[in-house]
Design brief:
17 helices
Length: 373
């Protein structure tokens, strides 16, 4: 399914671009064409990372599938999200059907969309905290039925997520998704630039800027919020310092599981928007774009709420591996060996790249070049 998400999204964007040009919607045709091109370039830049990414996603699904309580909580939050979407749609429909001008309706829809996006992000991150805390406890205690496992851990995680940690969840929901997406894109293009030093310098500046933001806004903070009850910024900083001190950050940078899940979310939103456009054209052809964009956002939020369960398991696996690799070894020895081998390979790769940079910038070499000239 994940492989289908990766390759189908590019094709779907290209088909939408052709249909928009055929319907004389030039702006949207260009937008979808650019999106398809960027998606294709990103896939080409990370194609060598996909086997390891699929391995991590398979193990995460394996973990979550055995936790039936987690699946029920995810379904309950999806029902809550559907109820909120039903209520929200009345307001959005009133905006679309209002007699004010198009510019006024668009601005009101933007405000409604921001509120919907933030609410969806808060619900997704609440599920993220609950699932991450549950998976982390299962890995630490060696199983769901272990004697040392706390009594009713899922209920405790749920109560903690919607009370003590809810402020941190709302705060983190404002920034983490946008910063994480930007980081994926910059990493993908940075690895394929080559020897263009001017372009590499510009991309490196953006890369270090985003890395600084990631230090304070990252999805791994939610695991520490769930387990230790820290504030969001404190949790994000501690998690990132842990990854960098253990070298696991090199493994996380190589993994593309979050990007693959985002592709599935985008694909679900685009399919929802396409269905809404087809239905709207029958009776209200003048409001196709307005209804289509709103439906895309609604579809992305619902699909993303389902995807966050797997992403939470991936997040907890990496944090457990950084804190104590033997926890992963006890859970799945074969997976532990594969992760350790990949980590060793990535650290060697970084070390060799660092030596190349040092040798290239060595002052003695530059003096020798000057003398020979």
């Amino acid at each position: 399914m994940m492989k289908i998400f990766v390759h189908l999204l590019t094709t779907y964007l290209a088909v939408l671009s052709v249909l928009c040009f055929w319907d004389k919607l030039v702006f949207w045709g260009v937008a979808f064409a650019v999106g398809s091109g960027l998606q294709f370039l990103y896939i080409i830049s990370v194609i060598d990372r996909l086997p390891f990414t699929m391995l991590v996603l398979q193990r995460a699904v394996k973990m979550v599938w055995k936790l039936s309580d987690v699946m029920r909580i995810a379904c309950a939050f999806m029902i809550i999200m559907c109820l909120w979407l039903a209520l929200w749609s009345f307001g959005a429909s009133g905006v679309v059907a209002s007699s004010i001008g198009d510019s006024g309706r668009w601005w009101l829809l933007v405000v409604f969309s921001v509120s919907l996006f933030w609410t969806g992000a808060v619900l997704c991150n609440t599920v993220h905290v609950i699932v991450s805390g549950m998976v982390f406890l299962v890995l630490i205690h060696g199983g769901r039925e272990a004697a040392s496992m706390p009594h009713n851990p899922l209920l405790q995680s749920l109560r903690y997520a919607v009370t003590t940690s809810f402020g941190s969840i709302c705060y983190g929901s404002l920034f983490t998704a946008a910063i994480r997406t930007l980081r994926w894109e910059i990493r993908g293009f940075r690895s394929k630039i080559g020897n263009n030093e001017c372009l590499l310098c510009c991309v490196d500046f953006l890369f270090h800027l985003v890395e600084t933001l990631v230090r304070f806004f990252n999805k791994y903070a939610y695991v520490q919020i769930a387990v230790y009850g820290k504030s969001f910024n404190h949790s994000a900083r501690d998690a990132w310092e842990l990854f960098q001190s253990t070298g696991v950050e090199a493994l996380i940078a190589y993994d593309c599981s979050g990007a693959v899940l985002l592709m599935g979310t985008l694909l679900g939103g685009l399919i929802t928007g396409t269905c809404a456009v087809i239905m709207t054209r029958i009776k209200h052809s003048d409001r196709v774009i307005m209804m289509g964009t709103t439906a895309v956002l609604m579809g992305m939020i619902l699909v993303g709420l389902a995807m966050v369960v797997v992403e939470s398991a991936v997040t907890s696996i990496y944090l457990c591996y950084a804190e104590d690799p033997l926890l992963i070894h006890r859970w799945d020895p074969e997976f532990f060996d594969q992760m350790s081998e990949m980590l060793h390979e990535r650290l060697q790769h970084r070390s060799s790249r660092g030596m190349q940079v040092l040798n290239h910038n060595r002052p003695g070499d530059r003096i020798q070049e000057t003398v020979s000239i």
